[in-house]
Amino acid sequence: MRIDILAVIPELLQSPFEHSILRRARDKGILDLHVYDLKEWGLGKHRQIDDYPYGGGPGMVLRPEPLARAIRQLQERAGGYDEIIYLTPDGTPLNQSLVNALSLKEKLLLICGHYKGIDQRIRDKYVTMELSIGDYVLSGGETAAIVLVDAIGRLLPGVLGDESSALTDSFQDGLLAPPVYTRPSEFEGMKVPEVLRSGHAAKIEEWRYQQALQKTRQRRPDLLSDDDTSDTSD
Predict the structure, then answer these.
(1) In whole angstroms, what is the distance from residue 198 CA to residue 49 CA?
(2) Taking a C-beta distance cutoff of 8 angstroms, is the pair 52, 61 a contact?
(3) CB-CB neighbours of 25 under 10 Å
(4) Strands 32-37 and 50-51
(5) Residues near 50 by beta carbon (within 8 Å), at least 6 away in sequence
(6) Cα-Cα end-to-end distance for the chain
(7) Which residues lie closer than 8 Å to 26 by C-beta, 6 or more apart?
(8) Distance between CA atoms of 145 and 108, rounded to whole angstroms?
(9) At 97, phi and psi to the nearest 5?
(10) Alpha carbon separation from 13 to 94, 111, 141, 144 (Å, rounded)
(11) Alpha carbon distance 95, 46 (integer Å)
(12) What are the chain's domains?
């Protein structure tokens, strides 16, 4: 998979992509990741990329000309993109289902918002998907890009040591993950549930499902249907 990122402050993206799972994905050639500085396409000798908003008001807006030039040139280099994604607080909330779908694409371009955002005409003409990682505002879309690339990268075949690991994460089946335990079997007077030490695969699977369902009812009932939110354990 190829992911290109167009950023105002590309330096913010260096460290996260040089370690752990994303580094492994890049070293294996599974993830082809490129970060570009929008100022490369800036206007004039000062490489201007922003200006005051029409209509007045505080803040600055990313100008359309540098963005359009960058997008067109990067499209040519990459041979086109499956999606051009703008990371913005007013985008569609990112969830695991969307991440799963994006992990099946071949080429993505991520545009990191900054200041008051990008000129609406770029959104109208070039952007094919707008995503938000939460109902809050960040200093720039670079942080959101890190989150999105990490979520996608770990799903790519061959990245994780255990291919089934990602499939048991929270949200993959619409539920939060159940509790997990490791050695020792007793710690400060607290024991690992007997069922997990029983070796009975079917009972363990059922226990994990019930625990996941219970946790989701308590913490994220919005993820469940009306039937699932009704506690029938009594």
Answers:
(1) 62
(2) yes
(3) 24
(4) unpaired
(5) 60, 61, 62, 63, 114, 115
(6) 48
(7) 17, 32, 33
(8) 11
(9) -60, -45
(10) 20, 13, 10, 10
(11) 39
(12) 2-153 (3.40.1280.10), 170-229 (1.10.1270.20)
Angle at which helix 141-153 crosses helix 20-27, to 10 degrees, equals 60
Matching residue, tokens 């030039």: 69
User: Would you say 149 and 33 are in contact if contact means Cβ atoms under 8 Å apart?
Assistant: yes
Query: Torsion angle of alpha carbons 163, 169, 175, 178, nearest 10°?
Result: 110
ω into 184 cis (within 30 of 0): yes
Q: Other CB atoms closer than 10 Å to residue 77's CB: what's the count?
A: 12
Identify residue 14 by its one-letter amino acid code. Answer: Q
Spell out the SS3 assignment of 125-149.
HCCCEEEECCCCCCCEHHHHHHHHH
* Residue whose structure tokens are 């075949």: 157
Q: Residue 100 in contact with residue 143, Cβ under 8 Å?
A: no
Q: How far is CA 220 from CA 19, 174, 205, 211, 225, in A?
A: 31, 10, 21, 13, 11
Please check whether residue 86 is in contact with residue 129, taking contact to mean a CB–CB distance below 8 angstroms.
yes
Q: How far apart are CA 192 and CA 180, in angstroms?
A: 9
Per-residue tokens: 198:
């029983």
Mean pLDDT by runs of 10 across the 234 residues of the chain is 98 93 94 98 97 95 98 98 97 96 97 95 98 94 97 92 57 83 96 96 96 95 78 49
* Separation CA 185–CA 194 (nearest Å): 9
